[in-house]
Amino acid sequence: MNSSRITYTAPGKIILFGEHAVVYGYPALAIAIDRRAKCTVSSYLSDEEDVVLSTNLFPGKKFLVSSKESFPSSLQAVLFLIKKLTDNFQSNISLQIDISSSIPSSSGLGSSAAVSVALTNSLSSFLGRNYSLEDVNKIAFEAEKIQHGQPSGIDNNVSTYGGSILYQKGLMEQVTVDDISGFWVIANSMVERNTKDIVANVQKNYKRKQEKTEEIFHSIHSIVIRGKEYIKQNKLDEIGELMNENQTLLEQLGVGHSKLTDLLLILKKNGSMGEKLTGAGGGGCVVGLFDNIKDAHSSMKNIKKKGYQAFTAKHTKIGVTIDE
Ligand code: PMV
After folding, report:
1. How many A from CA of 195 to the centre of ligand 1?
2. Is residue 232 in a domain?
3. CA 98: distance to chain centroid?
4. What is the structure's pLDDT at 2?
5. Residue to mutate (ligand 1; options 13, 15, 260; most atoms within 8 A of CB)
6. Are 111 and 17 members of one domain?
7. Is residue 320 situated within a structural domain?
8. With a cut of 70, which residues of the chain have pLDDT below it?
9. pTM as predicted
10. Is residue 322 situated within a structural domain?
11. For residue 288, what are the domain limits?
């Protein structure tokens, strides 16, 4: 152990283009956003070695990793990581792990992956293990599988490396870009949905109408390829247009929802350059692109007035990083 306290943070993400098609081997493009999960590991002397976990998901509660009390399902991935990383670790101290996240959970913004990435990096560093980013990414993916069944792996990649990422079948390419100058408004429909179920519905439709669905995936593929170039060149108008095109195709896949349509309309009326759902759809979040913060803010306020949750975000190049 080389420090008595260590903190890492890792970003959440939005899928800009290509969700669902990515499950069938097509590429998707995601960007990291400036909402982060944070994990601090520290130690204290105690007679009994243990790991004490606190998280802002359960304010005021402390979880003892050794206790027989079962952990809530939302913390199974965290528990898996703590056990995996502290395996073989013996000392006369106990560990304290504090997790907090400003990424709304269960809304398709990569909150669980960001927590896994920040936790893996902080705990392994605290225990003196020199893990590369590749190691951190791989271990976080194992945790993602516990949380989400069969995720594509896009979330842990974006959270580890930051920036903009083209992702296809386990292969990741960083899209080199200085910055995307636009502002994102992310609005939550608060319609709960389960990614697994939505993905299964798309699969059912795929089996029923394979030719039509493949056609949709091809069109999405073409959006991802064009989108990658526009992102590199920071062409906001063009990115916005592609977002709208992608939204139409997602609706054809059957993953729209009336509340999402409501939110997309509000964004459009408030001057967004393009707007679409992000992630699995069927509920969850939509995202709108603005070229100035003033319009983004007033759009966010108008969305909140209608009873939805919303916030503004910027693209970030910073993946998992130490917090000093
Ligand atoms: O809503 P999220 O962040 O779980 O995104 C799901 C994206 C899908 O393409 C539908 C599934 C996946 O694993 O990539």
Report:
1. 6
2. yes
3. 20
4. 47
5. 15
6. yes
7. no
8. 1-3, 90-91
9. 0.92
10. no
11. 183-313
